[in-house]
UniProtKB/TrEMBL annotation:
GO molecular function, one term: ATP-dependent diacylglycerol kinase activity
Assigned protein family: Belongs to the AGK family.
Protein name (database record): Acylglycerol kinase, mitochondrial
Example GO biological process: sphingosine biosynthetic process
Reactions that this protein is recorded to catalyse: an N-acylsphing-4-enine + ATP = an N-acylsphing-4-enine 1-phosphate + ADP + H(+); 1-hexadecanoyl-sn-glycerol + ATP = 1-hexadecanoyl-sn-glycero-3-phosphate + ADP + H(+); 1,2-di-(9Z-octadecenoyl)-sn-glycerol + ATP = 1,2-di-(9Z-octadecenoyl)-sn-glycero-3-phosphate + ADP + H(+); a 2-acylglycerol + ATP = a 2-acyl-sn-glycerol 3-phosphate + ADP + H(+)
Coiled-coil region: none
Pathway(s) where this gene product acts: Lipid metabolism; glycerolipid metabolism
A cellular-component GO term for this protein: mitochondrial inner membrane
Pfam families to which the protein is assigned, alphabetical: AGK_C, DAGK_cat
Membrane topology: Peripheral membrane protein
Keywords: ATP-binding, Kinase, Lipid metabolism, Membrane, Mitochondrion, Mitochondrion inner membrane, Nucleotide-binding, Transferase
Localization per Swiss-Prot or TrEMBL: Mitochondrion inner membrane; Mitochondrion intermembrane space
Record-listed E.C. numbers: 2.7.1.107, 2.7.1.138, 2.7.1.94
């Protein structure tokens, strides 16, 4: 009775103590779950490390490009706690290269030596810098065969849902992505080459976004003090500054081409001596006639389109799907005389923040293997290329099919294959 009387007389302190103890218990339970996940992942990695190798074989070498500034400066700690022990236990010889400033990853890729695997530890910005620096190399055809692993340590990890099964636990996502690198399952991904008139090309894995919704999304963080209303507030203020939010542009595009066949993952066995002798004799007596290869002129089709939002994307969201090679331009059919209200603009914009690639049912979709964007005179603003800002300008976008190979979890691949059947 004395205890209950004390709690009743000091109910404010008791309530505060219960809240603190509940939060502390929840925090400790979360830490315990993280330790269990790390332990299970390390046990799996240890089995890889115990596998015997032949005397003439060497340990696999991995070059890790780590951005310590990702995830608000927590990336280095996340990597050291969750990813580095798994790689070390698996017997992988890792070389960690940390970036100090924005754009350094591009320069580092110019001097990178041949490695068995390339691991990007960061977010969308780090990944885009690495693939841009890699594909700008003169010998990029050779380095394009190097498998790439992506460990999601950034605030935006757009490629992760395509490669791994995601959860609400950051530790689980990091350990699962690291284990998929050890298992060795890879998938070829398409790459967008985006080139302006003067600058060197920029390469992207997901897509290019331009328009009013993109501009509004860049200002949402300024209204942080409004809490859950910040998205709607950003759209309201944007409509007050500029309405209607319609932009005219010209797009020229090439028709889609058939997707090239998959390259064999395993090296074919060498034919026996008799077959090789017969083949050489046939080539000697009947040499193959090399006809002149005449390149067909590219047939560009042009359209003038008014739009609120433009998104050019790859099919890397489902990399195992076998579809034709294409770029999809999604264009909102909104004109200056349209009846779209401010409320509809805010509703559509709020949904697009959940998934920027979602558009209304009446959107226009163009399939192409390449396209050229011509912006109106005096147009200003920015592109979002894999969630990174670039100044808007006339650009040519080409799709490079199956240009890079990325490590992918077996579970995610089976899930995507079951969806396509």
């Amino acid at each position: 009775q004395t205890v209950f009387r004390t709690l009743r007389n000091h109910w404010k302190k008791s309530t505060f103590a219960v809240c603190v103890l509940s939060y502390g218990g929840y925090w400790l339970y979360g830490k315990h779950c993280d330790k269990v996940l790390r332990r299970e992942a390390c046990l799996v990695a240890r089995e890889y490390g115990r596998q015997q190798i032949a005397p003439q074989e060497r340990l696999k070498k991995a070059t890790v490009i780590l951005n310590p500034a990702a995830c608000s400066g927590k990336a280095n700690n996340l990597f050291e706690k969750n990813a580095a022990p798994i790689l070390n236990l698996a017997g992988v010889e890792i070389t960690v290269v940390k970036t100090d400033y924005e754009g350094q990853a591009k320069k580092l890729m110019e001097f990178m030596e041949q490695t068995d695997m390339l691991i990007v530890a960061g977010g969308d910005g780090t990944l885009q810098e690495v693939i841009t620096g890699l594909l700008r190399r003169p010998d990029h055809d050779t380095f394009s065969n190097t498998p790439i692993g992506f460990i999601p340590l950034g605030s935006h990890n757009s490629l992760s849902p395509s490669l791994h099964l995601l959860s609400d636990n950051k530790v689980k996502d990091i350990t699962s992505a690291t284990l998929s690198i050890l298992k060795g399952e890879t998938v070829p991904l398409d790459v967008l080459q985006i080139k302006g008139d003067k600058d060197q090309p920029v390469y992207a894995l997901m897509g290019l976004r331009w328009g009013a919704f993109r501009d509004v999304a860049a200002t949402i963080s300024k209204y942080w003090y409004l809490g859950p209303l910040k998205t709607n507030a950003a759209h309201w203020f944007s409509t007050l500054k500029e309405w209607p939010l319609v932009r005219d542009f010209s797009v020229s595009y090439l028709a889609p081409r058939p997707r090239p066949p998959d390259l064999p993952t395993q090296k074919l066995p060498r034919p026996n001596l008799l077959c090789r002798i017969i083949r050489r004799l046939k080539n000697y007596w009947n040499p193959p006639v090399e006809g002149e290869h005449v390149e067909e002129a590219e047939k560009w089709e042009e359209q003038q389109l008014p739009t609120i939002e433009l998104f050019i994307q790859t099919h890397n969201k489902n990399p195992v799907e076998r579809v034709s090679l294409k770029i999809t331009a999604l264009i909102h059919p909104c004109t200056k005389s349209s009846k779209m209200t401010v409320g509809e603009f805010i509703t559509v914009g709020s949904k697009k923040e959940e998934d920027p690639t979602t558009f209304t049912e009446n959107s226009t979709k163009l399939e192409a293997s390449a396209c050229q964007l011509q912006l109106p005179e005096g147009a200003s603003g920015f592109f979002n290329i894999d969630n990174e800002e670039y100044e808007a300008m006339p650009v040519e976008v080409r799709l490079l099919p199956r240009k890079l190979r990325f490590f992918m979890s077996v579970e995610r691949k089976e899930q995507l294959l079951s969806q396509t059947q």
